[in-house]
Specification:
Elements: H1 5-9, E1 18-19, E2 23-24, E3 26-27, H2 38-51, H3 61-81, E4 88-91, H4 94-106, E5 121-125, H5 134-143, E6 146-150, H6 163-166, E7 171-177, H7 190-198, E8 202-206, H8 218-221, E9 225-229, E10 240-244, H9 246-251, E11 262-265, E12 270-272, H10 286-302, H11 304-322, E13 328-331, E14 342-347, H12 352-361, E15 364-365, E16 367-369, H13 374-379, E17 385-389, H14 396-413
Parallel strand pairs: 3-15, 5-6, 5-7, 7-8, 8-9
Antiparallel strand pairs: 1-2, 4-10, 9-10, 11-12, 13-14, 14-17, 16-17
Helix pairs in contact: 2-10, 3-10, 4-5, 11-14
GO molecular function: cysteine desulfurase activity; lyase activity; pyridoxal phosphate binding
Function: Catalyzes the removal of elemental sulfur and selenium atoms from L-cysteine, L-cystine, L-selenocysteine, and L-selenocystine to produce L-alanine.
Enzyme class: transferase
Amino acid sequence: MSFDAVVIRADFPIFDRKIRDGKRLVYLDSGATSQKPNIVIDAESDFYRLHNAAAHRGAHQLAEEATDGIESARKVVADFLGGKEDEIVFTKSSTEALNLLAYAIGSAPTGNKFHLKAGDEIVVSEMEHHANLIPWQQLAARTGAILKWFEVTPEGRLDLSNIDSIITTKTKIVALTHQSNVLGTIVPLDDLVKRTHDVGAVCILDACQSVPHMPVNVADLDIDFLAFSGHKAVGPTGVGVLWGRANLLEELPPFLFGGSMIESVTMTEATWAPAPRKFEPGVPNMAQIVGFGVALKYLTKIGMGAIHKHEIELTKYALDAMSGIDSLRILGPLNTDMRGGAVSFTLGEIHPHDLGQFLDDAGIAVRTGHHCAWPLTRKMGVAATTRASFYLYNTTEDIDQLCESILAAQKYFG
């Protein structure tokens, strides 16, 4: 089946509405959250209408159906990532998944593979979203570990020239973004993962901006943990995923405690169920997980390779079109080599917030600010940017309208 973004748009009811006095919605903020197709909306509401009960509890039919819905979704996620079902932990978001890892590692006892002591090293990069920086920053502060990082070049690439001095025999954790939510840069992982494993460290991937947009196979990447969110992959809010190698999840201590995650309990002690149950206490986000499974099936049917190809074509079109606008500066790579569909830019002396409001009045939804990546925007020499991010339902017409409105903003602001 050939890829047709116009046909795909028809699956998303939000594009039927008009905004700002009857204007067509041009949604260029999928880097923040994606829109949802009818099939996902229906799956979530049908769960509440027809199957609502507490999963993993009760022997009645509704409870069985709720449990089957969640476990079926777990298999969908595992297949989508090229992992195994017992390696999929459902969380409320990728932020929670990354914090789960940081807090669990921080509570690992002496003798555990994950135990951190003063002088151990945690490696991140200047490209990280706050969700994959602050948890490790705080873990280093709690344990006495040393936080180190790869710097970003003026072109918006990771500087890997000093990889052997950044990742050393003292390194225990390397936690990196797969694709920058600001620059669109896709991080080359082969040498990073090899060096990480050569020194005996674990490799953690923030894949929020990659898994929804390109084929990602955890076995091929040879990483140890991965996190991403459902709401960025045409799925519901309130559900995320932590994937981890089964043997590592077994050794990792639990993060939250309560029902469902235990093997046995007395008044003085408890033992834990095997992973992934060990990390899923309480009643899960059932309807959201069911909708998430349907979302990934939807993306699979279209084809992640086709989606990625479409986004690269849109990104090239946008880079070419925007580079011809006077005083517009694009942050990050200026070509599509190892680059995804997030384009952040400044426009002369016009503040990004003012530009964002002007574009909103034209029916164009973009993101403005530091994009939860404050160290990165500082490194690139700006306080804030305007960001347009593309997905499977965007077209070149959307980009044309963006560029026309940018030119109009230049005239308006003088």
